[in-house]
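Why show two proteins at once? Because comparison is the fastest way to build intuition. When a single record is shown, students tend to memorize it. When two are placed side by side, the eye starts asking what differs. So, the first record is below.
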Amino acid sequence: MSSFTEILIASPLKDGEQWVIRKEFSYYVDKEGGDVITVPAGFISDYASIPRFLWPFAPRWGKYGKAAVVHDYLYDTHEKTRKEADGIFYDAMVILGTPPWKAKTMYRSVRMFGGNAYKDHSSYIVGLKKTMIEIPELAEDVCFTDYKDLLKKSKF
């Protein structure tokens, strides 16, 4: 059976939109072969990328928070195809107790509108890592745009 084995520990960055994952956590996918997706400490996520006008119905985080971070990680790294990443997102939401109507709606939304995020915004394509090399003690004082600028200057 699919499962998460650790709690999600994250801190907001200065912009309040992006969060840095403070402790590695894993999701075990219920497939033959025991696939494990491990999101490293330092990965940066915005949780669920939901338009603001829909937040009353589906805020950026909720029961599905861990699923959204795993989904962001898979979109960023391309460890899975987009279809596989979206399916894992759906399964993880269900495991976390997201109401079925909400899980289906969010799944359909990423299937319909997630193509550009997968194709254009992954670190694989643009050459930027969304994982901080070292987690600064005061990561809350950094926003993702500042971090991208630092990476560009360091030619990482």
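Second record. Ask yourself what differs from the first in the token line.
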Amino acid sequence: MEDGGQTETAVVLQSAVTLVLGDWLANMFLPMTKTSIVRLCMSAIDETNHHGDYTLQFEAMGGSLIASGHFSKQTTCQELHAFVRKTLSQQQHGRRSEDGTDDGSSSVRYFTLCYGTYEVPQSDDIMLCNLMKPNCRTLTVVFMLTPDYDHFHCINWLSAHRDEIASIAVSPDGKMLATGSWDHRLRIWAIRKKYEKPLLLHRLEHYGRVTAVIFSPDSRTLLSGTTSGGIQLWNLGPKGGCLKTFYGHRSGVGKLSFNPGGTTFWSGSQRRQWKLYSIESGKCLQTSPEVKYEFGSSGKAVSAHPDGRVVVMGSIDGKFKVLSKELNTWVDIFERPNKSWIVDLVFSPDGKRMLSGTAGGVMELWSFEPVSCLQKFQGHYSGVFRVAFSPDQRTVLSTSEDRTIKIWDAATGTCIKTLSASGEFATAIAFSPDGRTIVAGTTSGNVGLWGSVS
């Protein structure tokens, strides 16, 4: 793999070319000290030597400004990658931080730069100004260093629930963990330093088993869905509490997905019916037709596109079906050669690919628009139960009924590392926003966290 490899790829439009590196990332996940991160950012800015019409800005994860500089209309994507690559290369030669301690950057090999959901090409001479919105003089790019997945080990283990954990999620700001269980409880945890157990913040009771959880894009609220069909919006502030309840589903909720702005969300049920709701009004804006075929007993074999425009479903007859906001009907878009039942389906963060886990023990990577199979991952001895993309989309994760969790290279299909949840069946999995921590919930109600030694 060339130098633009693994790293987080979520990017926003805002006020400049921005490499987003949070303080909490520096302290808990990145194999570098905060000092070295600031120096890396400053070095990249100093290398630009541009004093043109556009701003180059580096921010912390919370939006606090670290440093800023300038680039011209002629600055290209290739040059931006060169700036960062040169600085990383210098860091990799064992430079020590200003306080004399090793910054740990010798393990850093790859990075990714992204704009919105579009990965900034390394070898392209596209000018950065052409990536911006009309009349906009700023660009925001997220930068993330690759995790050392082949050295991941269990860094924490806690007893979280009395029954199976059906859904797990990490907040976009990386500060909270949510676990939804069959014990009718939703619990919110504060993620602390590595090797410190997460701190319980909220215990939220439900009338049914909690089968789906998702944080809002701003990490201030959370949606939870249950087997009773109810969906609740929760305040994650110090006092907590339910803000709103959404009704309409006649069966259990299997999937939830916010739109990028957090103003609406899709919800999917076990009856293969999807609804689009407004957060503000609480009203159902759209209801899909129910589908005859059986799609996974938990309603997980369906996924909403990250931009919220369509929903894709994998059917027992081997077909992918799509539902759009404009055409409120399910349309066949592709027939899979492999008829093995799809158990779980997710979109990549940029919406260009899909990942499916099958009852036959094979995980499949698909392109979207048009649909075609890009890679197959074989190595599980039983059905693949849940799947996930890393934030940089270069790594994928699977958990199986064979009681293993596997980390895979998305490009080659090679298994990088096999993890064990203390011999338990992991029924829910997720990556942290920086990709440097993997979390999983088990049938026994336990939660495991895995990360690198450094």
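One difference worth noting in the second protein: Residues 1-52, 58-67, 94-108 have pLDDT under 50 and may be disordered.
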